[in-house]
Write a sequence for this structure.
């Protein structure tokens, strides 16, 4: 049996990589992948807890998240493509139209 | 559902008939301007006719609410659809229905763009105004109270003068800030009194003085802005000056009465102790408003601005009378509200008449109008004289009773307020002189005298001026009982037993 | 007895008919309605007088006008000897002046308007004198003020005329301010504003003091003085006299009716009507007497040097009104009313003669440009001469009896200032005689000093004007015969009818003096009258160069008098201009613009400014937002961890 802590540490590590990637990288695709990484880190935690607590609801939730994440990824990528077509760049520093 | 003695929901009809008329107007194609105007006019006349039975069917011998309609509305929060009239509010309903007709008539030719929307706004305005005077449930009241803002905001902001947007926003924000404080007060009251919005029920309870004090000022914020009392009056000149004639008329005749009406309907019966305690402050503000408004009129160069500031002065008389907390003052105050509605409404109508011809509001652009438009000049002098309170006009009765009441309550206040009458004569006669007398200004030569439509618009006001001036009992009779009841409530501090106890004590002593 | 109601309501009906149909239907015939109505009122007034002499009085409400709580006022009528006399004065003068106006105003394009105002005025004046409560009195009071405003400003295209109308109204408002508060105090004291209960209960309050604006004052003095404020305004006494001379901008019949015979005497009527109150306060009476004495002297001195025909007569009116107050102030209300009654005739006559002169001179008013008119307009000359003799107090004429009565009452009455005001009254009698005859001599005698064109046009006025002159002339001579003092009448078996008639209302103070003293007072007043006439004759007929020399020699005094003691200038400098300056520069410029509007506009703009700063946080860079988000998460986690420890 792999103890719960190991899963949680893996989850934390993957989440931190995601956060670090999101904050440091400027390429929008990579940032988007970092976001996905964070999402999946949470999924790992959820499955681990689900197994540990012998409660299937956690895994059901994960399925929902995966579904939503798929949809979100599709929309996100579509937005990115639209942006790229307009700006011919994937660098986020070039995108500051939302400045107040 | 509780229905009234007439077996017909007359108040609901009055409120929703204009709204239905507005909906009907929506359906008419915008190209048929004549039809739009005709429908608007007939709806307003119909509303006026419906309001007449109120006048004849009112029982003057009781202070109780009449023509009551009551229907559960949102039972979860104990909100009811509750309407009724008493001697204080009935005259305002009649005034509202009359003024709407005149506002539509005076706009007949002067409103040329967005005609449909204009009349829709006016009709919705009418419904909301009547609603405010009839509502006996705080929630319902607040809805009507805020609903009035929107059409008025549009009237000023869309059909107004060059600086209309500034004036409209100023009007809106000023009023809203006050109203929001009142809303907080209403909610506090709701919870304190055990979740009820019933105004009549709330007005029979006793509240701790601290609570009364804070709530009084919360409500004061809303009402003082509307009146407008010094120093929250500065929206009024801008709003009046920029508004189209109909807007100014409705504003002057009905809208600013809501403030004083609010004092009578809410502040006094709900918070009698606080009202009594705040009397000196209120009298001071009233006297300042009277003198301040009057003196400032002397320096105005704009016709509408002058009349707007004179409203500040006249409404100062109204609040003085109300807060004198005696019969003469209060009855005078209520009557003066009607009077001011008639006279200032009529003055704005008259200014509208000449503005349609010259398109200038500057007093300096006029002069000698009396030789060009004699009929107009004679109508205008009637309103001028009513405004300065000449005996046999309505202004005299109101001002006399107010000053008598004010003097009884507080001598210096009465004496100082009376100086407002001197200054009042000064600015109104000076205005009249500069516009109508002296050499004929080139800009007014050859103007046509009032036409039939304008005459019909102004004549009801002339009749009312003299009717109230010569036989005011028709109108005062409505309020005797309600005012007596209100004064009793205010003076006994909300403790129903207090008078009887005091009576017994004095009897024993004797 | 209800036919009395017709007295005021006939003119009201005439007013309504004329104002509604005058322009379209009646036009040049507008005067018929007005004259018939006022003549009808006159007939009924005479009938009323006869009834009242038979001992009848009436106190009847028509309907309740205002009622609120304990306050009640009605439209009601009181007819007693005082009212009856006033009715006769008002309707007689009004009728004659209506007739005169048909000639004077002939061809004016506001003919119907003029007559409707006259009718309205007559209505209001009658309501004033017939009132049985203070509220209706106030109605008439303001009503006549309004008509005065309309009629002074009748030629409204002239700036001076419309200015004068406005001034009259506003100055009167100052007086009415006190009057109104007086009514309030009466109501608070007596709980009613009807004459009858007020006057009958007044005695009970004779020694009571009240707190008024923080001062303890004698109640009756307070009420009397507040009411007197109204009188000061309406009757143009110092310091509110400034409007009356300017009021001469109105057509001359108006000056005769409103500003000489009737409206301006309303103040005297008020004091007489409220005599039960005034009599309870020695202070108030003293104030009334001194105000009257000072005003009469003051106005008479101004009258000495004016050159405007109508203004001289106007100052003479102010002066004579002062005389009436002087009489009331020494407790001789009957003498005051008697003088009011005789004055109405001779002063209306003087004005109408002046109007006749103006008519002939095509509107010229400067007496320095007249002279020698006697031969061109004999009727005007003789009637005006008689009026002047009457006002100068020549024995046998109306003015003599009333003036003598006043002086004797002042001299012999109980008033502490009696002797003083007698002295000033005698001096005024001298000045009056002088300026009246200065006017006569400069206008009618000597050589014509105007242009040739004017001289060519000189003519006697039409019959419609001269007949009223002659009728009024009868009044100026004979109206005094009802008040012949006992000193003269005793031996002839003639009573002082008016004093007896008025006694039930006004009382009759007994003079404490011997016959010898009374004779002395009478002779002195006659002597100063003749001296005044003589001096005028000397200065303007025998030595016409003298007035000019005196004017240069005493140029300082002359200037002050000529400029009417600079009272108008003073008011303008201390009241009118500062008020407008404050309105313009303080209230609009500072309070409204810099204080209230600064807050009103300042709060939104402060919020806007803050928002402008705040939005800089939104950089638009995605990683800034992410970093802040991450930092936020860390902080929240950190806080949670710290709490769990």
């Amino acid at each position: 049996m792999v103890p719960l802590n190991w899963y949680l540490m893996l989850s934390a590590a993957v989440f931190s990589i995601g956060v670090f990637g999101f904050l440091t990288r400027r390429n929008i695709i990579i940032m988007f992948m970092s976001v996905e990484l964070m999402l999946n880190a949470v999924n790992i935690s959820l499955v681990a807890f689900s197994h540990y607590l012998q409660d299937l609801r956690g895994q059901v939730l994960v399925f929902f998240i995966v579904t939503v994440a798929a949809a979100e990824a599709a929309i996100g990528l579509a937005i990115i493509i639209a942006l790229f077509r307009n700006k011919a760049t994937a660098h986020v520093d070039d995108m500051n139209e939302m400045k107040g | 559902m509780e229905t009234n003695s007439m077996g017909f929901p007359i108040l609901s009809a009055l409120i929703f008939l204009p709204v239905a008329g507005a909906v009907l107007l929506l359906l008419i194609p915008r190209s048929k301007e004549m039809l739009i105007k005709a429908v608007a006019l007939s709806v307003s006349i119909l509303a006026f006719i419906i309001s007449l039975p109120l006048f004849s069917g009112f029982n003057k011998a009781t202070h109780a609410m009449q023509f009551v309609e009551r229907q559960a509305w949102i039972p979860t929060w104990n909100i009811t659809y509750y309407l009724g009239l008493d001697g204080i509010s009935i005259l305002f309903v009649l005034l509202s229905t009359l003024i709407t007709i005149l506002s539509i008539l005076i706009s007949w030719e002067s409103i040329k763009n967005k005609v449909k929307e204009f009349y829709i706004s006016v009709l919705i305005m009418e419904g909301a105004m009547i609603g405010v005077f009839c509502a006996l449930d705080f929630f319902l009241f607040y809805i009507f109270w805020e609903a009035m803002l929107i059409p008025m905001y549009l009237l000023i902001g869309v059909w107004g003068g060059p600086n209309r947007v500034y004036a409209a926003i100023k009007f809106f924000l000023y009023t809203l800030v006050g109203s929001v404080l009142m809303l907080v007060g209403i909610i506090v009251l709701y919870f304190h009194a055990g979740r009820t919005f019933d105004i009549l029920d709330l007005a029979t309870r006793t509240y701790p003085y601290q609570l009364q004090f804070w709530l009084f000022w919360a409500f004061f914020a809303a009402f003082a802005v509307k009146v407008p009392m010094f120093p929250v009056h500065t929206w009024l000149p801008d709003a009046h000056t920029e508004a189209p004639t109909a807007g100014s008329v409705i504003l002057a005749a009905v809208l600013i009465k809501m403030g004083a009406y609010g004092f009578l309907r809410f502040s006094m019966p709900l918070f009698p102790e606080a009202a009594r305690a705040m009397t000196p402050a209120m009298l001071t503000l009233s006297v300042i408003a009277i003198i301040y408004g009057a003196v400032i009129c002397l320096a105005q160069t704009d016709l509408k601005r002058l009349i707007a500031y004179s409203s500040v002065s006249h409404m100062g008389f109204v609040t003085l009378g109300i807060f004198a907390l005696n019969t003469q003052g209060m009855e005078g105050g209520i009557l003066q509200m009607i009077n001011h509605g008639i006279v200032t409404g009529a003055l704005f109508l008259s200014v509208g008449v000449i503005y349609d011809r010259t398109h200038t509001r500057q007093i300096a652009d006029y002069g000698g109008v009396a030789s060009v438009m004699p009929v107009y000049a004679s109508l205008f002098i009637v309103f001028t004289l009513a405004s300065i309170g000449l005996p046999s006009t309505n202004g005299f009765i109101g001002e006399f009773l107010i000053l008598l009441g004010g003097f009884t309550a507080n001598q210096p206040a009465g004496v100082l307020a009376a100086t407002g009458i001197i200054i009042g004569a000064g600015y109104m006669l000076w205005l009249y002189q500069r516009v109508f007398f002296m050499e004929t200004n080139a800009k007014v030569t050859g103007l046509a005298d009032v036409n039939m439509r304008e005459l019909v618009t102004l004549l009801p006001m002339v009749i009312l001026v003299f009717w109230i001036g010569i036989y005011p009992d028709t109108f005062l009779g409505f309020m005797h009982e309600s005012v007596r009841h209100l004064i009793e409530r205010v003076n006994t501090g909300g403790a129903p037993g207090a008078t009887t106890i005091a009576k017994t004590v004095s009897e024993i002593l004797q | 007895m209800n036919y009395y109601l017709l007295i005021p309501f006939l003119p009201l009906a005439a007013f309504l008919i004329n104002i509604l149909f005058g322009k379209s239907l009646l036009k040049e015939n507008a005067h018929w309605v007005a004259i018939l109505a006022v003549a009808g009122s006159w007939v009924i007034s005479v009938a009323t007088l006869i009834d009242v002499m038979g001992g009848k009085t009436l106190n009847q409400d028509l309907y309740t006008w205002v009622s609120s709580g304990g306050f009640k006022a009605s439209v009601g009528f009181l007819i007693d000897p005082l009212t009856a006399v006033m009715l006769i004065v008002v309707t007689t003068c009004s009728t004659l002046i209506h007739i005169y106006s048909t000639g004077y105003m002939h061809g004016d394009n506001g003919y119907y308007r003029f007559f409707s105002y006259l009718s309205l005025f007559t209505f209001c004046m009658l309501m004033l004198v017939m009132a049985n409560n203070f509220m209706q009195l106030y109605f008439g009071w303001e009503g006549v003020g309004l008509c005065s405003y309309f009629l002074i400003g009748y030629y409204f295209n002239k700036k001076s005329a419309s200015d004068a109308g406005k001034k009259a109204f506003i100055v009167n408002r100052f007086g009415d301010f006190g009057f109104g508060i007086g009514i309030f105090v009466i109501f608070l004291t007596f709980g009613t504003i009807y004459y009858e209960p007020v006057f009958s209960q007044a005695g009970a309050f004779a020694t009571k003091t009240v707190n008024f604006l923080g001062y303890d004052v004698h109640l009756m003095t307070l009420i009397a003085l507040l009411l007197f404020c109204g009188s000061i305004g309406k009757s143009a006494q110092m310091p509110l006299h400034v409007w009356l001379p300017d009021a001469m901008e109105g057509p001359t019949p108006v000056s005769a009716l409103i500003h000489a015979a009737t409206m301006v005497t309303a103040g005297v009527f008020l004091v007489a009507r409220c005599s039960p109150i005034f009599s309870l306060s020695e202070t108030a009476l003293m104030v009334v007497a001194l105000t009257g004495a000072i005003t009469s002297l003051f106005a008479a001195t101004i009258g000495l040097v004016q050159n405007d025909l109508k203004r001289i007569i106007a100052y003479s009116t102010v002066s004579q009104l002062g005389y009436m107050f002087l009489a009331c102030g020494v407790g001789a209300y009957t003498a005051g009313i008697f003088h009011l009654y005789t004055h109405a005739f001779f002063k209306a006559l003087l004005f109408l003669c002046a109007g006749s002169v103006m008519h002939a001179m095509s509107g010229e008013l400067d007496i320095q440009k007249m002279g020698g008119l006697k031969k061109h307009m004999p009727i005007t000359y003789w009637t005006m001469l008689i009026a002047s003799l009457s006002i100068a107090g020549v024995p046998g004429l109306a003015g003599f009896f009333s003036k003598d009565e006043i002086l004797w009452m002042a001299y012999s009455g109980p008033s502490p200032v009696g002797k003083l005001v007698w002295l000033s009254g005698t001096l005024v009698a001298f000045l009056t005689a002088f300026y009246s005859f200065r006017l006569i001599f400069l206008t009618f005698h000597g050589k014509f000093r105007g242009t040739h064109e004017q001289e060519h046009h000189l003519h006697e006025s039409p019959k419609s004007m001269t007949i009223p002159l002659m009728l009024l002339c009868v009044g100026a001579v004979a109206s005094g015969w009802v008040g012949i003092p006992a000193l003269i009448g005793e031996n002839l078996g003639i009573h002082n009818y008016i004093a007896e008639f008025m006694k039930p209302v006004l009382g009759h103070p007994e003079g404490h003096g011997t016959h010898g003293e009374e004779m002395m007072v009478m002779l002195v007043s006659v002597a100063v009258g003749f001296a005044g006439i003589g001096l005028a004759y000397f200065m303007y007929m025998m030595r016409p160069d003298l007035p000019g020399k005196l004017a240069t020699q005493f140029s300082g005094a002359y200037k002050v008098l000529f400029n009417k003691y600079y009272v108008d200038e003073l008011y303008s400098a201390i009241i009118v201009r500062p008020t407008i300056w404050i309105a313009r520069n303080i209230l609009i410029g500072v309070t409204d613009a810099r204080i209230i509007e600064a807050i009103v506009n300042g709060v939104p703009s402060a919020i806007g400014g803050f928002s402008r700063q705040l939005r800089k946080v939104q950089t638009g860079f995605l990683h800034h937002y992410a970093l802040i988000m991450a930092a936020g998460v860390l902080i929240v986690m950190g806080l949670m961890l710290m709490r769990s420890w």
Q: What stands out?
A: Chain A has one domain: 4-90. Residues 57-87 of chain A form the longest helix (31 residues).
